[in-house]
Amino acid sequence: MLDHLFGEGIHTGSLTLERRKGETRQFGRDEPAARLTIHDPQVERRVPADPDFMLGQTYMEGGWSTPDLRTLLAVLMGNFDGAEPGGGRRLMTSVLRPLQQWNRRAASRRNVAHHYDIDEWLFRCFLDTDMQYSCAYWPPGVTDLESAQAAKRALIRRKLCLRPGQRVLDIGCGWGGLAIELAEQAGVEVVGLTLSEEQARVARDRVREHGCEDRVEIRIQDYRDVPERFERIVSVGMFEHVGARYYDTFFAGLRDHLTADGVALLHTIGRLGQPGVTNPWIRRYIFPGGYIPSLSETSAAIERQHIGVTDLEVLRLHYAYTLAAWYERFQAVRERVAAEKGERFCRMWEFYLAASEAAFHHRGLVVFQIQLAMDQTAVPLCRDYLHEAAAPGA
Fold first, then answer.
1. Within-domain flag for 275
2. Under 8 Å between Cβ of 261 and 378
3. What residues are paired with 265 via a beta bridge?
4. I need a labelling partner for 19 at 20 to 30 A (CA). Which of 161, 254, 352, 383 fits?
């Protein structure tokens, strides 16, 4: 079954398949060249039966290995689109998506804890020093992760059009890096929201270390329970956890919590194609309740709440570069992670990073930065202000 799958499907790049007894077969002849070694014969039955789930599952179990996971996944995703054909895809989307995104308050807290309440040290192992766990920004001349994340924060700061003394709501503040920078660099007051106990603890410690307790407040609070209004709202890497059935609730809350002359910025992973469903392996092991929106879904929800889109930027491949940097950093400390959390966890985590990178190259994933305002004059009429001080950290 596996020979048939690869023989029919691989037209770009090449794959060498090796079995336990030393038997090898090659599919395709071009670069990039990948290699897959099968250790458990059941892999040849399980993967073709359910590729989207079983490829990651059997890798976690040690059923197969490869000398270069990123290249292998690039070859596979470059040749297999992972889509259900025609009506099957539409049926899967309409039936499964609502069930996969039942993100009511209690479920949201459980889903966040599943991923973000993992030990802090793990994230410090592969993230930049500011612990930015979202897409970096790679303008010309920027080649390292620290500078790319600084450039991302600076771009967001410019898009918010901040003025000293304003109050900012940071929905999904992570470990607090953006909130601290906005307070220090723009002289604003920030309320950061998270549902993760670990993130809140670390963020509060960092706020104290920076001496900005009077300007940054970190809350463990659902975005649906915020009572105040703010001049600015920002959300980075959180919208993917909202779920399509709650988009109207999210944007209604954004509208209600934004002052009449306020500005908001939404930074989210998005898909270039039509609405779909979350990859089953990612949903089970990495982001339960997660969903990557299409632009049409997001725009329709914004329009229903009568909020104006004042700027839209699509960051193409920036997240692929970010994930590649994270993968390399993770590999540098893999031995330590394996000692602490076991080989199965390591294989899960590296598969998640490598598969996500390949998806941004081959599955139409991008990042949307959507600037929003109730008043179309709330931001400058031309985009020059976004580039006047575009150096990293500016």
1. yes
2. yes
3. 234, 371
4. 352
H helices present in 197-333, as ranges: 197-209, 247-257, 280-285, 295-304, 318-332
- pLDDT (average), residues 96-112: 49
305-314, pLDDT tens digit by residue? 999 999 999 9
**Do 297 and 370 contact (CB within 8 A), yes or no?**
no
Domain that holds residue 234: 103-386
**Whether the Cβ atoms of residue 212 and residue 239 lie closer than 8 Å to each other:** no
Q: Do 192 and 308 fall within a single domain?
A: yes
**How many angstroms separate the CA atoms of 156 and 152, rounded?**
6
Locus of tokens 């290699």: 35
* CA–CA gap between residue 279 and residue 349 (Å, rounded): 15
For 2, residues 6+ apart whose C-beta sits below 8 A from its C-beta are 17, 38, 43, 44, 47, 48
Q: How far is CA 297 from the centre of its chain?
A: 17
Tell me which residue of 294, 236, 87, 264 sits closest to 168, measured CA to CA. Answer: 264
